[in-house]
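ARCHIVE CARD
Drawer: 12
Card no.: 0347
Subject: one protein chain, sequence and derived structure
Cross-reference: see card 0346
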Amino acid sequence: MIRYFSSNFSHLILLIGIFIMIIPVWLIFASSTHTASIINTQGLQFFLGDKFLENYTKVLLYEGGFFKEITALKMFLNSFLMATGVAFLSVISSLMTAYVLVYFRVKYATLLFWIIFITILVPLELRIFPTYSVMSTLNLVNSYWGLIIPISASAIATLFFRQFYKTIPDELLESAKLDGANTWRFFIDFLVPLSKTMIVAMFIFMFVFGYNQYLWPILVTSSEQYWTVVMGLKMMSGSIVNKFAFVIMSMIPPVLIIIVLQKYFIKGIFQDK
């Protein structure tokens, strides 16, 4: 009886939590399918309206910005390219950094790792001006590379890969050497396949991190052609239903990434191998 009550109580708490998180999103989505006059006079709507296709099509093709040079569709493309580039480069650099720190006889490897890890304590705001100066010197301002490269190194991902590599038995390396595998082949043929779930988990983390960036894109881009979705949330004008539709659409890319890769994401976070 106690176990039955405890189980039902736990499910009730979960349902309440889901309700609290979902209802605001649903209200915004439902309201985005009505006309602006209904929202202005009657407030947020709980039930769907009949303006879904009209409102969302208008938002996707709406030319916004100070000079009316950018559409929401272009912003989504910019954010997707930026987030994908940040995630890809972060995973690659962290994989190789962790590999060097664990499997190579690097002097002061532990000290070097902690120096890398300490960068987590240095917020982007403190290094943003020297970083901008470097990007300007390299002529990467107003470019996708300028958006991606400065935030593509991840100490957190390096930590996860390093700790994962330390759980791999030394016998695997010895067996690879007996089979004639060189350094590169051991990394590609052995470590990368074993790290698949961890790679996916880190890719999701860094994709969401890159997608949600606001301060760096707004500083490194002066052209509206490189505006991202997060910048557009503040700078796009239009009726309230258009803004609601834009908010809902801005949630779709990271949600889709998590849904598609959730199996590997859970394994990568909660399993050692």
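Annotation on reverse: The chain has one domain: 71-270. The mean pLDDT is 79.
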